[in-house]
């Protein structure tokens, strides 16, 4: 029981460590997402500045606008892809966390069940031991009585034998 208890306690500690690790990973991912949004914000400000500087010629402006729009769209797409990946990873970690919580609950239930079973087994063994002890004591008492009776009978037989022997000697 103690071994099982220690084993279950170790599993609980492992599950808590794993949950802490997932929490730290989630915090790191949130920080990375913030950096991505700040980067995007800086890119948008940079784009506005560039537009202001290139208003001199319409053709250059249109070429630049096309290039900047493509770059922005690509960055947005990349950001969305990264966000999607982070969101997906977050869902996976959340599901894993729920699984770990469920496993912990199952292990706690199993532990309680085993404790109860151990207690019942201990009571049964204790009762059997007590019963066997009583039977042994009773048997020892009966054997002692038998030994005493046999000794008495042996004394009587020796006495009778002695008398028969004396009568034979007298008759001879």
How many strand elements?
Answer: 0
Task: Kindly estimate the percentage of residues that lie in beta strands according to DSSP.
Answer: under 5%
Helix proportion range = over 70%
Quote the distance from N terminus to C terminus.
81 Å
Number of helices: 2
Order of helices and strands, N to C? Answer: HH
Please name the defining characteristics of this protein.
172 residues, mainly alpha
In short:
This protein has helices at residues 2-53, 58-171. By secondary structure, it is an all-alpha fold.
What is the strand and helix layout of this fold?
Elements: H1 2-53, H2 58-171
Helix pairs in contact: 1-2
Structural notes for this entry:
- The chain is mainly α and 172 residues long.
- Helices cover 97% and strands 0% of the residues.
- α1 runs antiparallel to α2.
- The longest helix is centred in the middle third of the chain and has 114 residues.
- It is rod-shaped, with a radius of gyration of 47 Å.
């Amino acid at each position: 029981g103690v071994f099982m208890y220690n084993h279950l306690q170790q599993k609980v500690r492992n599950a808590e460590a794993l949950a802490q690790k997932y929490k730290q990973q989630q915090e790191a991912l949130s920080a990375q997402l913030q950096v991505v949004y700040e980067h995007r914000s800086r890119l948008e400000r940079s784009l506005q500045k560039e537009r202001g500087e290139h208003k001199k010629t319409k053709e250059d402006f249109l070429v630049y606008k096309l290039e900047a729009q493509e770059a922005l769209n690509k960055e947005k797409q990349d950001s969305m892809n990264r966000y999607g990946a982070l969101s997906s990873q977050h869902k996976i970690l959340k599901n894993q966390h729920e699984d770990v919580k469920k496993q912990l609950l199952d292990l706690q239930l199993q532990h309680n069940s085993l404790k109860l079973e151990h207690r019942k087994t201990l009571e049964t063994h204790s009762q059997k031991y007590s019963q066997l002890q009583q039977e042994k004591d009773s048997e020892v008492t009966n054997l002692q009585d038998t030994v005493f009776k046999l000794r008495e009978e042996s004394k009587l037989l020796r006495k009778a034998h002695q008398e028969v022997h004396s009568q034979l000697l007298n008759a001879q």
